[in-house]
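Example complex used in Figure S2.
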Amino acid sequence: MSRIASIEGRAIPLPGHDIDTDRIIPARFLRCVTFDGLGEAVFADDRRQSGQHPFDAPHHQGANILVVGRNFGCGSSREHAPQALAKWGIRAIVGESYAEIFFGNCVAIGLPCATARPEHIQHLHTAIAEDPQIPLTLDLEALEVRLPQSRLPVEMPAGAHRMFLAGTWDATGQLLAGLAAIREIAGRLPYGSPLAKGG
Amino acid sequence: MAVSRATLFDKVWDLHTVGTLASGQTQLFIGLHLIHEVTSPQAFAMLRERGLGVLYAERTVATVDHIVPTQSQQRPFTDTLAEQMICALEDNCAEFGIRFYNIGSGSQGIVHVIAPEQGFTQPGMTIACGDSHTATHGAFGAIAFGIGTSQVRDVLATQTLALDKLKVRRIEMNGGLRPGVFAKDVILHIIRKLGVKAGVGYAYEFAGTTFEAMNMEERMTVCNMAIEGGARCGYINPDAVTYTYLKDRDFAPQGADWERAVAWWENLRSDPDAQYDDTVHFDAAEIAPTVTWGITPGQGIAVDETVPRTEELPGEDRPLAEEAYRYMDLAPGVPIVGTKVDVCFIGSCTNGRLSDLREAAKLARGRHVALGVKAFVVPGSERVKQQAEAEGLHEVFLEAGFEWREPGCSMCLAMNPDRLEGRQLSASSSNRNFKGRQGSASGRTLLMSPAMVVAAAVSGAVTDVRALLEPTP
Ligand code: SF4
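Predicted assembly (672 residues):
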């Protein structure tokens, strides 16, 4: 599994707070049995309504670091949301805060979400507005975002942070390594397999 | 035995802890895994890619709910994408030996309705499902998490999850609810007061006489929406109400197992002097019928209040309020009562159970849906539908001008043909009022109790349900 220590590229700003997963990927696009093709549908309704959504701005095409506000990704547990962002080309997110399930889903697919203070997010917005092509690095080892003229501290919960740096963000392998312990816990539970009982 | 000062959450967490991972996260055993057609197909594909199987197929239960049409459930569905999704689930369940409650089985329905009603959901369990409203099962004193698709894969392959332990906030509410105030109003009120992100990092323990007095279906309504307050799970300590509900259900323990289970459940309750990371207090008497006016479940007001003005709101809430006025086309300072509605929806895993339908039918009896309003009732499961019909509730609804549909998630998230059109405004008993949630990119949703939905349906506008109640003698 690959280690994720630093993401370099350009940023795409998404102003506003409490942007929910229904907006990131509207429910009608969940009618699918694979995640392929979700990239084009990311923010579908917001984009159609606004006509000038950042995801459609020519100067943000190819950007890979998303800058968001507070409580990003609230709402449904659909992994389709981070998958759609990733398929569009997003490799990392920097924001004020994230909804919990969304954050976990991002970790599981190797999409780091770093947290920064509101004034630092504002600083990023200003810098991107001045120069949409401004090069940016999210350095997970140093826990900072680097711009040509400045560096901003970011945070990440310790567990997720370790997983990205160790390359263990895909949990399945690690979890399976505990197979003997899993069986032991299962055998010790005061309740059986639900289906072993009754009807 | 050492004096314990643990919460139910701590006890259940410890019991299911397999170990600590290198990341510092806990590897937690999941006692019951619920799956459905929307978030599982990619997980099964990942299993196949890696040559993995399902470790405890007997701890997995499947049903189909999100995409099923509620008008005709004739197969193949006319919607070919929906048909493809149900076929994928059928194939996956057959291949991996997973119990599947398909349409027509008599037990199909919304995943959070069918697991409790069959007795799968029990106190002390850890439960996971690829759906954020899994918190519902916490009503039984289970610790239940909504998870994403990669985690569905992990649970299928290992029956465990990598999780950070949550803190516990005790939400204590005491006193009786006033007439016309329901469990839905209680949770809308809590979210309104605490906000939609206050629960991040927390499990919510709902405690106090208000919750103790609730029946299991009301408790499920409360826990269901813990996630709308940001809390990944919510729970209520099990008690006699829980046990009475569970006794003799299909998958509940039987005979001597039952006695043993009850003794264990009693011990699981949070200790009287348990340590909480936070405690907040509410008085049930303060709660009025509540309705949302905005685009998050936290933007709620009492039905007799006016849409808040920006200056009445804390600074950080103002930008979202401005966005909500524009989207909802509601002016600050105007009463919410009288807002015209186009569609009225009763159903979902929040309010699609028998007691919800009974309450709604009580108000619908002898009244009629207003001209130009489309109103429909979607039972939460085949069993709910069958029981409701046995009680004649469907006739009450049909006579009152409501449509009576087949079970499913329906217009809660509109992945099936039940959708708002254009700018339509819906009065909905579901749990989310996000932009575009009910199937039209510009559609608008007001969340409220099923009784309030009936009041809106028969009046054609948001109405204080208390005006429709029989005067109490
Ligand atoms: S009824 Fe709504 S919230 Fe509940 S499981 Fe279905 S889509 Fe999700």
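Strands of chain A lie at 6-13, 65-68, 92-95, 113-115, 135-139, 144-146, 151-153. The longest helix of chain A spans residues 118-130.
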